[in-house]
Amino acid sequence: MKNNLSSLRDLASAFGKAPVDPDTAVPSTSATSDDSLVYSTDSGRINQQQEKTVTPSDGFAKVRRETKGRKGKGVVVISGLGLDNKALKELAKKLKKTCGSGGSVVDETIEVQGDKREVIQQVLEKAGFKVKLTGG
Fold first, then answer.
1. Could you tell me what percentage of the chain is helix, strand and coil, using 3-state DSSP and rounding each to the nearest 5?
2. Pairing between strand 44-45 and 60-66?
3. 45, 67, 83, 112: which has the fewest C-beta neighbours closer than 10 Å?
């Protein structure tokens, strides 16, 4: 090891890093750059590409009724489906149309307004899901 570190190349080799050639260096704004970069004066705010992962299903679609945080209004929450966002939205549309009520997709769950657990159970079983009613 050199005792005299006269350049960055010598410093990089002292720490076991391969020296970087400026001719073949990748610009810092590329997708292969450091993932912790948040802002660059070269290109502004850097939007990170985050991969959406779907939680795998345990084989049961859990259907429960909730009222907490909804001013006493009841909704049926369906979770544990193991579907991607597009498939969840299609299934939610089918469930809302069958129940004749509103609802939404929140994270990896479907919320349908009202207490229509039996109807939702039948629709999910026809779609090939094993359904487990949870809660009271």
1. 25, 20, 55
2. unpaired
3. 45
Please state which architecture CATH assigns to domain 60-133. Answer: 2-Layer Sandwich (3.30)
By C-alpha distance, which of 61, 71, 50, 67 is closest to 123? 61
- In the sheet that 130-133 helps form, which strands lie side by side, from edge to edge? 103-106, 109-113, 75-79, 60-66, 130-133
For residue 81, count CB atoms less than 10 angstroms from its CB and return exposed for 0-12, middle for 13-18, buried for 19 or more: buried
Between β-strands 39-40 and 44-45, what pairing exists: parallel, antiparallel or unpaired?
antiparallel
Cβ atoms of 40 and 46 within 8 Å: the answer is: yes
User: What residue segments make up the domains of the chain, in order of their start?
Assistant: 1-50, 60-133
| pLDDT digits (tens), the chain, 136 positions | 446 777 777 777 777 777 666 666 555 544 455 567 666 677 766 666 667 777 777 788 999 999 888 888 899 999 999 888 999 999 999 999 999 999 999 988 999 999 999 999 999 999 999 999 988 6
Are residues 58 and 129 in contact, defined by beta-carbon separation less than 8 angstroms? no
